[in-house]
Structure formats: C-alpha cells, structure tokens
Amino acid sequence: MILKSDYRFDLNQLLALCTMMLLAPLLRLIPSGAAVIAGRGAWLTALAAAPLALAYVFFICRLMSARNESEGLGELCLRCLGGKAGKSVLVISAAWFVLYAGFILRSGAERLITTIYPYSTPDIFIIVMGLLCLFAALGSCRSIARTAKLVQPVVLGVLLFILVFSVMNLQKENLLPISGAYFLPIMKGSLTVTDILSVVLYLSCFLLGSVRKDKGSLKSLSIWAGLMLLMVTAVSLAVLGNFGAELTARLTRPFFSLVRNLEFFGSLERIEALVVTLWVFPDFLLVSALLYTAQHILRLCFDLDPSYRGEKRTDLSAGRWAALPCGAAAAVCAMLIARTPTALELWSKAIIPIINLCYAFIVMPAIFLVGKLRKKLG
C-alpha cells in the first residue's frame, strides 16, 4: 500500500508554486490598478504594502503553526469551528475557489485572443485549459508543485530579460518627483498589491497538508514575501517608467503592451506571442491548485479522507469525483461571466478583489479567533 508521505513535498517547492500562482494576477493588475489611484507614485505601492503583507505572513504562520502533521487549513478549519460551522465555511471556500478558477480561465482566454488569436472565441481556450487543469487536480498536489519548480526558472528568466531591456527606455519624469501629497494615494493603491499577495498566501495554507513541516516557515515565507514585493516594484517601475501613469491606467494589460513595444539589441523584435504563451503556465498552475483545493475540502465536508495515495486519475472513488463538478463549474463560470471587455474590467478590478479581501481579512481571522476561543489552537 502506498503511504500518503510518499506524495509530500517540501516548503521550497510550495514557494515555487506560490511564485508562479502570483504571476497570474500580478501582470493583470500591476500597475494599472494602482496607477489609477496613485498616479506616478504607483511604483511605490508594493513597498507601502510591505508592513501589512508581512503582518499577514506572521498571522498565517501563527495560525498554521497549530496544525498537526498532514493537516492543511481545511482540516484545521473543521477543528477550530466544529463540524457544522466548519463545513459551511469550507463549502463557501470551495465555491469561491471555483469562481476564481473560472475567472482566471476567462482572463487567460481573453489575453490569448486579444494578443495572438483575435478572430477566435474564448470558449475553446476555456475548455482546453479547464480539462488540463482538471487532469492536474485529479493527481497529487506534489505534481503541481513540481511542475511549478520546473517552469519557474524559465518564466522568471523571461521576466528578468524583459525588465532589463525596459530599463533602457525609462523616463525619469514618469516616476519623479513624489511629494507628500502622494502618501494617501500610494497607501490606497497598496491594497492592489495586498490583494494579489493575500490570495496566494491563504491558498497555500490549504495545500500545507501535503508539505513536510518546516520550523523555518516564518523566515522562509517572510523572505519570499519580501522578494515578491521587490518583483512587483520592478514590474511597476518598468511599466510606469516607459508609459507614464496616465497611459498605464488606461491599458488593460500594461505589461504585455510593454513587451510589444520593447526593442531588443537595437531592433524592434516581436516576442509578445512567446511571452503571452509562456504565461499560460501561471494560469494553469493557479487554476489547478484552486480546483485541487476545492475538491479536497469538499471531500472533507463528506467526511472522506482526501489524501492522495497514488490513485489513477480515472479512479473516482473516495469522493475523488468531486473534482469533476468543480472543473465543470469553473468552466461554466468562465463562459458566463465577463462577456464584454467592460465586464471583464469590472470583475478584474472590483468584484474579484473585494471577495478576495473579505475572505483574507474577515474569514481567515474569524477562523483564528474562534479557534482560540474554543481552545483548539495552541
């Protein structure tokens, strides 16, 4: 019999997965969302978000330090809230993850259409990507994390390559001067950064049941968060420095617009299609992790053991069938929501961030507080 421990992975692999998942919303929202609020000061929003982001990292580590071996946030939620309340929260969580997976499928399909396949419809891309992500979700979480570890050097290497060449066209007047009047707008704009970072942090908590316990998790996660904030700052600098705040605020996908206009080695080389295609990997990994988490916590609601023990993907026993309705619901959501560019903008910059921030700063603290009151946390 295959033991559950044979399918566990380490914290470094989880952080690689977190990095790849972060890139999906990062290049969609940064820095156009912050530029609307903070103007040329938008490149400072990631640094302004650092205190709250690091405090949230500390909170996450404090909450998850109470987990037992092989427990993730789903199992910990049941222990903290009790059976009925815990299962209610898990069902709400699964619904949110499926909705978010559907939105990422829709956003990714629209990106491919607007940049590479202008005469196509999004449904075919949604179905193909949805099936691939469902296939991944029916396997082990370790396989998803290992895929992230494998593609991370390539994706980050391309990102670094683009950022280096973007420096050549930076315009100082697009970034400076920054006066005291920018303080409040920068702080408001930092919520965009907090939004994209928080979803990755709490989603990773649901995956911790497959991760070997690491005593240095607070230090590792704090360093990771700091590096991610620096990466967000670098992307913001590149886009704002090239386009300025006014144009950046109007662009739907400013990073990919930057790629389209960059000159490489003295000539205007079109590598936008390559970069857009490469960014399918962050979408794939994020949606796969969301579907894996959704089916995992739904199986907990049915009092089934959701751990992976080497089952074939065609084996739907022990509640593994839960992945199928999750994948189907995500695809249906992707086809129904945000049918127009205006609607997609509304979902991207208002509806999804509001739901996410409510989950991160209301639901998560509530789990912690009830767990402390019921003396379920150490």
Number of helices: 16
Provide the low-confidence segments as ranges.
none
Q: How many whole angstroms does the radius of gyration measure?
A: 20 Å
So what's the overall shape? Answer: globular
Estimated structural class: mainly alpha
Query: What is the arithmetic mean of pLDDT?
Result: 87
- The helix content, as a percent range, equals over 70%
Number of strands: 0
Biggest β-sheet strands, sense, barrel: none
- What is the string of helix and strand elements? HHHHHHHHHHHHHHHH
Strand content: under 5%
Task: Measure the end-to-end span.
Answer: 34 Å
Q: How would you summarize the topology of this molecule?
A:
Blueprint: H1 11-29, H2 32-38, H3 45-48, H4 50-64, H5 73-81, H6 83-115, H7 122-137, H8 141-166, H9 183-207, H10 217-243, H11 245-250, H12 254-261, H13 272-278, H14 280-301, H15 323-336, H16 341-373
Helix pairs in contact: 1-8, 1-9, 1-10, 1-14, 2-9, 4-9, 4-10, 5-6, 5-16, 6-7, 6-14, 6-15, 6-16, 7-14, 7-15, 8-14, 9-16, 14-15
Keywords:
mainly alpha; globular
Task: Characterise the protein shown here.
By secondary structure, the chain is mainly alpha-helical. Helices cover 72% and strands 0% of the residues. The chain contains 16 helices and no strands. The chain has helices at 11-29, 32-38, 45-48, 50-64, 73-81, 83-115, 122-137, 141-166, 183-207, 217-243, 245-250, 254-261, 272-278, 280-301, 323-336, 341-373. α1 packs across α8, α1 (11-29) runs parallel beside α10 and α6 runs antiparallel to α16. The mean pLDDT is 87.
